[in-house]
Each structure stands twice: as structure tokens, then as C-alpha cells.
Amino acid sequence: MASAAPQTEWQQGEWQLDLGAWAPKAKTAGLDSSSKWNFNGGLGYALSDKWALRYDYHGLKTKMDDFKTTGNEHEVNLAYSLGKNAAVFAGWNRIGNKFDNSLKGFKDTTNNVAQLGLATKFDLAKNLAFYADGAVGTKKTSLWEAGLAYTINNDWDLNAGYRYLDTKLDEDNNIKYRGFLVGLSYRFGGHKAAPAPAPIPAPEPVAPVVETPAVPQHVYNDYYVDSIHFASDVDTPLASESQKLQNFVAVAKAHPDSTFKLIGNTDSDASQAYNEDLSKRRVENVAKYAEDNGVSGSRLNLNYKGENTPVASNATEQGKADNRRVDIWEHK
Fold it and tell me: What backbone torsions phi and psi does residue 48 show, to the nearest 5 degrees?
């Protein structure tokens, strides 16, 4: 299902564009071709936070050895996310087996394949993941791909791997394509990349609202103000948190002798080291908003806990959403 490392989770309205190349060899009836670099490409769209639709193209051109091929492959799949590490998909795969060597008597064939598959992805280190996907289908077809993906930032990935395709050629033979590949992915749209709230012109005076802490533990001389929440694997606040950010600034200006503790937190997805860095970036973005709106940085005490201080269970999506937060405490 991939022209690049497969996505196993996505955000509604998000697009992913994949561009790459692979160098397949073909083998059938005991005969082999030589490898040739082909274009790979794909486009995906998230219909919701669970469902996505993808189209992928793979060239199947190879060089002359015993024979050479000139075909291609088109895939359309509907995918469903099972969580951070896995997704299932099903769809249609049109495989054109074409030849440029009449001496061997191969006949061009086109296989229209119904297929069902699984895609997986696991973090190995910060920004580096192992991925694999595979499918089985009609026309004696199976395919798989595995490799490594490097995340440049929230929008760009690089990948390198190996791909294998086996499908029916005639009543007696299958044809196999296999080779190394490289790819680049770009994601855009959706709501995961919502920008940090822009500086807001001075609003009408807002009466400070200091809430009693609902879940965070009370600390002597520290008074709970609010919690700013974030989307999964995003370090900028949700757009819906704008009013909370404004209230934090209003409280800080109303109490000029107080300092404020900002404590960053994450859910338990990804590695502990990655989550610690993510919670640090979340705290820094909330602090930047306060400073941009007139609160001195010397009054802000930044701390980050990663996944170590959850306020809800990470076994549910709602619990994870509650844990993706920056808690704000006023110190008097």
C-alpha cells in the first residue's frame, strides 16, 4: 500500500504526497531480468481520524537479461487505523505484466486483484522507525515491503526499504518483482498542524479566573490556574485553547508579584525520551505565547515531565487527550 513508509494513524482532512523510486528485478519460469529504476508515487487523504483513502503507483520496468518487462501497478486502498502502530487496508490492485521480448513467447497480462493487508510502524529511536506492510489477494497475488523511515519534522519523512510483489502470469507460472526503494513524503492539511495562537490585540479587560485544581495535586503556595491541551504528537496548543491562554495572561498581569510554573506532559505513545522532548517543546510554546503578550519570561518557571505524570489512563483515547497538556500553577 505504500510508495513510502505507511502511515498507521492520521488526522481528518490531512493529505500525504509520496514521491520515490525503486529498482525491481523480475523472475518467472526460471528466467531473470536485470533491475531498473522506476518512478513510485502516491497520494492519500484522511477521511476521518480513523479512515483514509490512498492511491499508489509503481513502475514495473526492468532491463534485459533473459527478458525485460515494461508494465506498471496501480493501487487504490481504504485503510483503517488500529492505533499508533498498526492499520488494516483493503482495495484493488491493477498489475500490468508487459514484456519487450517476443523471443521467449511471454504474453502480456493484466491482473485486477482484490487485496487485504496490514501496515505496521514501530519507533526505534527519536525520529527513526521500522515499518512493514503486506497484503494477499486474488490472482495468486501477495506483496510486502519493509524498511526504515526517518522523520525530518511533522510534515516530512524519508524512507528506504525493500519491496516484493508476486502475482499470476499464466496457468503455470507466477511472476515476481523485487528490489530496493527510496522515498520522500510530505503531509499537509488536517488539524494536527494548527499554528500557535497568534498575538491577540489587547482585549477588553478580562476578570482573572483561577480554577481549583480538578486533578493535578496541590502544592503548598502553588495555585492551579489551568491546563492547556494539545493534539497527538503536536507541540502547539489546540485552537480551542485560545481562551485559556488569554486567561493565563490576564491572571499573570493581575498578579504582578507572582511567578508561574508551566509543567509539560504527554500521553504514553512513542518513547520516553521522545515524550520528554515533546513536553519540553509544549512548555516552551506556552511560555512564548505569554511573553509575546506582555508577561516577563523571568516570571515563568518551565518544567516538563513527559509521560510520567498522567491524570488519566492512557488505555483510552480520551485519557490520552487529557494527558496531552501543560499545567499552569501560580506561585505566591
Answer: -155, -170
What is the model's pTM?
A: 0.60
- Helix (H/G/I), strand (E/B), else coil: 22: strand
Q: Give the distance from CA 73 to its chain's centroid.
A: 25
List CB contacts of 113: < 8 A, sequence separation 6 or more: 92, 93, 94, 95, 137, 138, 139, 141, 167
Q: Are residues 175 and 29 in the same domain?
A: yes
CATH number for the domain harbouring residue 255: 3.30.1330.60
DSSP label at residue 138: T
Residue-by-residue DSSP string for 212-228: PPSSSPPBTTEEEEEEE
Cell digits of residue 23: 529498482
Could you report the per-residue pLDDT of 214-267, keeping only the tens digit for each?
445 544 578 899 999 999 999 999 999 999 999 999 999 999 999 999 999 999
Reported as type and span, the H/E element at residue 290 is helix 272-292
Full DSSP string of 225-271: EEEEEB-TT--SB-GGGHHHHHHHHHHHHH-TT-EEEEEE---S-S-
C-alpha closest to that of 61 among 52, 72, 47:
72
What is the rounded distance in angstroms from the CA atom of residue 217 to the CA atom of residue 283? Answer: 19
Q: Same domain, yes or no, for 43 and 178?
A: yes
CA distance 151 to 104: 45
Calculate the dihedral angle through the C-alpha atoms of 179, 183, 188, 190, rounding to the nearest 10 degrees. Answer: 30
pLDDT for residue 201: 57
74 and 181 both lie in a single domain: yes
* Domain co-membership, 94 together with 241: no
CB atoms within 10 A of CB 42: 23
Residues in the chain: 332
